[in-house]
Design goal:
2 domains; mainly alpha
Length: about 280
């Protein structure tokens, strides 16, 4: 009896290990066939290291900076949230249609792709206002700092970051149409890819020269540099605003074209009716 029990126990253990191995292989195959999932594993540690590394270098060399310019970090956090929420607002509204399997129904209606893009961007603006205004008011109460003291420049900063967020969000929506929900994680981390190069918490001069060139083609960099000029030097730099406007015009144009191209491709392949299944 003991031999039979031992044999049964061995077979049971082997069957258990085989099932565990099968499940591990199932997830290996899942990740191997989805580059967004693989990218996400290394993405956040690398991003944090780069961004906070630059901030550490800056603080080490300019210890009195934030004493002279109270509220710079709070303003940077709030304006970054505008960019983040603008991008995520477009993506999440699109994902809502995918999760509810409603995308195909929308496009058998008279709704045109351009009208859909306009609705996504409008909804994004509403999400940003709902998310950021309470945080800005809370900063007044908790820290006695009001971002609204920036006056008219704040409107320019807000508008530019909003448009840049739309651009990123529309490209993400195009990728979602192409790759389906397997690329869902891109909606959450895409905009963070530009965070280390946007000079949010530290000036552009902290970065190596070759990174400054990359940062210079981002509208967000010019916005955050302009924000520090207003708060620290009490100067509104028109040149930075013009640069941000020109870059945003190019970004938005390209992103709309990319979205429409992905939409046409998905419609021709019959993918729209299958998205969300």
């Amino acid at each position: 009896m003991s031999g039979r029990a031992a044999g049964a126990g061995t077979r049971g253990a082997f069957a258990t290990s085989r099932r565990i191995r099968a499940m591990v292989l199932r997830y290996v195959y899942l990740y191997r066939g989805s580059w967004p999932r693989i990218l996400e594993m290394a993405y956040w540690p690398t991003l944090q290291m780069i961004m906070w590394g630059f901030l550490t270098i800056f603080l080490a060399s300019k210890s009195g900076f934030f004493v002279q310019a109270a509220g710079v970090l709070i303003a940077a956090v709030l304006l970054w949230d505008v960019l983040f929420r603008a991008s995520l607002g477009v993506s999440l509204s699109f994902l809502e249609e995918m999760w509810s399997r409603n995308l195909g129904h929308l496009f058998v209606s008279p709704l045109r792709p351009g009208e859909f893009v306009a609705a996504l961007t409008l909804m994004s603006a509403i999400r940003v206002l709902i998310g950021v205004i309470p945080a800005a008011l809370l900063a007044i109460w908790l820290y006695a700092y009001s971002i609204f003291d920036m006056g008219l420049p704040l409107i320019a900063f807000f508008a530019n970051l909003q448009v840049m967020g739309w651009s990123f969000g529309l490209v993400v929506c195009g990728l979602l149409m192409r790759y389906g929900l397997g690329a869902e994680s891109i909606a959450w981390f895409a905009i963070f890819a530009v965070a280390p190069f946007s000079a949010i918490y530290y000036p552009l001069s902290v970065m190596p020269d070759w990174l400054q060139w990359i940062a210079g083609i981002l509208p967000s960099t010019h916005v955050f540099e302009g924000m520090r000029a207003v708060l620290v030097d009490e100067t509104f730099r028109t040149d930075l605003l013009i640069n941000a406007l020109a870059l945003n015009a190019a970004y938005l144009t390209v992103s709309v074209l990319v979205f429409l191209r992905f939409f046409r491709s998905a419609r021709e392949r019959g993918l729209i009716l299958q998205i969300g299944e």
